[in-house]
Each structure stands twice: as C-alpha cells, then as structure tokens.
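Extended Data, panel c. Modelled sequence:
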Amino acid sequence: MAENGARRIRLGMVGGGTGAFIGYVHRIASRLDGDYELVAGALSSRPEVARESGKNIGLAPDRIYTSYEEMAKKEAARPDGIEAVSIVTPNNVHFGPAKAFLEAGIHVICDKPLTSTLADARALAAIKPKGGARFLLTHNYTGYPLVRQARELVKSGALGKIRVVQAEYPQDWLSEPADPNNKQAAWRTDPKRSGAGGAIGDIGTHAYNLLRFVTGLKTDSVSADLQSFVKGRKVDDNVHILLRFTGGARGMLWASQVAPGNENGLQLRVYGEKAGLSWRQDNPNYMWFSELGKPAQLLTRGGAISQPPAAAMNVRIPSGHPEGYLEAFATLYSQFAAVIRGQGKEFAPLLPTLADGVEGMQFIAASIASSKADGKWTRLSDV
C-alpha cells in the first residue's frame, strides 16, 4: 500500500538500465511516497543489459523485455499489466515508446525534453490516448515547494505586474571533449540522439519551463545566440537568449555546460512593479522576497509564509530539515498518482503536460532558428 493507504500503481520503465543516472532517480522518486510498484521493464536496447538490469532490480523474468514494443503489447494484454510507464531514454527514443503506451491505454511519465524534434512533439500531442491515458513530463524543478510558493506569490499580485525575468542554468561538466566511454555525455552531444539542441535541450528547457511555470507569462519571441565552444562538438554547449513576453515583460536566459565552477546552478529571479523574488536550486529551502522600499525577507520551505494551496506543495517534513531534488521529483510522481486515481484535481494544473513539452520544443526550435539568423527575433508561433 501507498503511504496514503491507496493501492500501489503498477509501473513499468523503458530505459534506465545499469549505469543510467536518470533511471535510478526516477525509481527512487516513484518509491518515496509508496505510490508505485515497479513490476516490468524494457531497461536497455541491448538484450543482455536489459535482462541483467531487470534481474538486478528484482523484476520477474517474464516481465523483463528487450523491446518497448513487446512490453506495451504484452503488458496491455495482462490482467495485472502495468498501469503507467516511465520513459527514461535518450531524447530520440521518447516518441516511439510514448506513442505505443498511450495507444495501449497506459499512462506515460516521460523525461524531458518531450522528443528530439518539434515534428515528433506535435505528432505525439495529436494522439488520442486509449481510455483517457494521461501524460506527465518530468520537469522536476516544478515540484520544489518554494517554486510553487513563488508561483502563488506571482498569482496573488504580491510582485505587481511582472517586468523582468532572469533564469540561468550553468554547469561545467562538458567543458572538455566528451569521453566516448561516458554514456551520459556521449548521447547528449550527439545530435542524432539529443536532437538539434545540446545545452538548450538538456538544461535550457528546464530554465525555460521554470520561468514559465512561476510567472505564467506567455512567450512571444526570442533572440538567441547559441555557441559550441568545444572543438568538434556538433551541438551547442552555451546559450544566451533574450525573451519578449506577451504584455510587455522582458526576459533573459543563460544555459551553459562549459562554465567551470558550476555544478547545477539553476536559479530564477522575477521582478515586478512592487517586489522581486530570487530562488536557487542548490539552496532550495530558501527564497528571497524583496518589496520595494522594504528590507528583504528570507522565506523558508514550509515556513510561516506558506499558505493554501501549500498542501499542493507536498512539504513532507518540518521546516528546518532540508528537502531537495529527490523529494521534488517524488512530488511529481505522487501527485500524478493522485491524478491517475481520479483524486488529483487540485494537482493537475501544477504538473507539466504534453502541451508544456510541445512549447519546450517550440522554444528550442525558435532559438536555433534565431541563432542561425544572427539573433533575429523569432516568434514561437512561427516555427
């Protein structure tokens, strides 16, 4: 049983075999609140790795598959088949599994970005899922309690009309040519697997989704400068993007994987007519809120400023005890479980959807087009 007394949802996984970072994270997230039981998997495109990986995590031999096609067909036919599936493969292997499982009536939890191409994203969005199967895109930073608090502050009007938004996500781990033995680096720097975007798709979409989630601003157009600094690299490793929002607000986004000294430096700053706020992913239990002409306030996760709908923030432990990345990831899983059970009406607006994924791919495509045109302002609606 789950922590809330509900029956656990039978979960499958595509990708995430031995040595895969994000698959391990998804498995932890699915277990944290007890809402899921992993019972089946097609964990690798290599049959021997798929079998070994399935055995290592305790799957029954007849629930270990060597292709997602076989898994979708057989699990949909079983009376005890999976009810949801996590897709944790490289970007170019998101579309096929997502399509197969949605058409089989199985709920889909998919890592970001949605697909490797905008065309695939739109094709996926056009599918009519069997039996009303739902879709979750794991932009996990939307699960942080203070990110949701920031969203509520903006919605309440506490900042006034939004004028300026700045988001950044710097890393340093690709500052040198990728080691061919490093699977995580190899596929992220291969446009056949990552898609046309490098850093912009891997981390830039996280920063973009975060600013959109918190502010609710609709993006009109972008002016982008994408660069590949490492010799021979076929995708971007550093991006600077200016954004124009409907209503007049302006934004800046920087994403880099060649910024020495930065690990996962995602941060967001939002400034309105009356106040501003600032949040950092590497110190996620604190957020600065500054009203014009008044001393800045340090807000804490689960602290006195939390208010309804604070219940939707999924604060698990008392303030002062840190929560972070895994808990935020688990929040998406647990609240999606409530949606699957028909009990998560209040959570649905907070969970990233297929539509968010399509917009993320539009953001990538518009930014690439703008950069190729020497920074020409490019509307998302034009790509």
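The chain has two domains: 9-133, 151-317+356-372. This feature is highlighted in the accompanying rendering.
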